[in-house]
Amino acid sequence: MQPSLKPRLYLIAAAIVVIVTWRPVAAADFRVCADPDYLPFSDRAGQGFENKVAQLTAESLHMNLIEVWDTTRGPGGFGEFLARNLDQGKCDAIMDMPYGSQEELTTDPYYVSSYVFIARKDKGYDLESMDSPILHKLRIGFERDTPPEDGLKLRDLLAQAQPFSVGDTENVSPVTMLKAVQDGTVDVMITWEPAVGWFLHNYPGLVVTRVPNARTNGAPEQYLFPMSMAVRKGNETLKKRLDAVIAERKAALGEILRQYNVQLYPAAAEPS
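Above: the chain's sequence. Below: its structure in token form.
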């Protein structure tokens, strides 16, 4: 007696259905908003540390990185950049924002850095804090609309200081602040260290000193900031996924930052 062909036919038919209906699952897109021309943070060529962090994060999420370009330094500044991009759903995340910001939902921090004094080594200025007496005798440069501006105002030093508008002016590089110190336009510059660290190898005659949060009189001030990624408010699912990447890829993220000479500090770092 010949075996029935029906079971075999059923199996063949089922296999055909599987072959016909199976499709590879495409990786989802991870859209990151970034400035197209603001090194060392980001640029279209992918040369900034935010570009590298975004790529590492996308790979860790098994997603395709799509960079959505828009200036962070146009009218309205960074707040307007967030409003017209992240808040409007044009991207899913940004790679660099102060931890705990009320504007968006921030992830766990992935680095901590500081505002710094930058001066010429040959001057030997004693710059220990914003209360250092020598500041009253120096030409001070600072980046506009940053915590150092408030600190200078508290000490009646603002009138003798020169503001630099790097963070809110397109096509201006942070290098301009280093050049101002090098050529003597100012004696000391107070700025965000990650903005200038990448360029410092071209300025071996300059010395960098962290600005501590300590204050001689009154409440402490904040110059040391933990930095995070950020997503739209309410997107807890993506936040948790990014938190997991930050925890799992801590060493790799730290290596990217070191390549850009971003000085990293303990969260509670103060001078000993």
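The first helix runs from residue 6 to 21.
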